[in-house]
Give the backbone structure.
Amino acid sequence: MRKNIVLLVVLMLLFPTRVCAAPVVHAEVVNLADAAAETATVNVDSGLPAVSQDQITGKANDMAMSIHRLAMKVSPQIAIIVLSGCALLGIFLKEARKMIVFLMIGLALIYWAPMIISLWTSFLQ
């Protein structure tokens, strides 16, 4: 029981400093009407433009990387919240301690996703 209390105190002291140390990001105000006017329009009356397979692959890679960047920004904060909750519940429940292991595996998968995907594609080729 004493070891659990020491762990709880350490977690309570360490994790709020990580949250407070995060830089404050101010969102820029974007006018959607101006942004929509700036986008290029494609005339489809004469048919859809021809798209190569490289362009499709490039667009899919761009979308995947933007999702990965977003996940990299959000996942540490979510992990801190879940880890704090699991640490508090882990005092009383053994199942909550197991969730910490799955949390670390999930974070590793998020951070290593590009390497795992490139490894997978190299095995397929």
Q: What stands out?
A: The first helix runs from residue 2 to 20. The chain has a mean pLDDT of 77. Helices lie at 2-20, 32-38, 53-90, 94-111, 113-124.
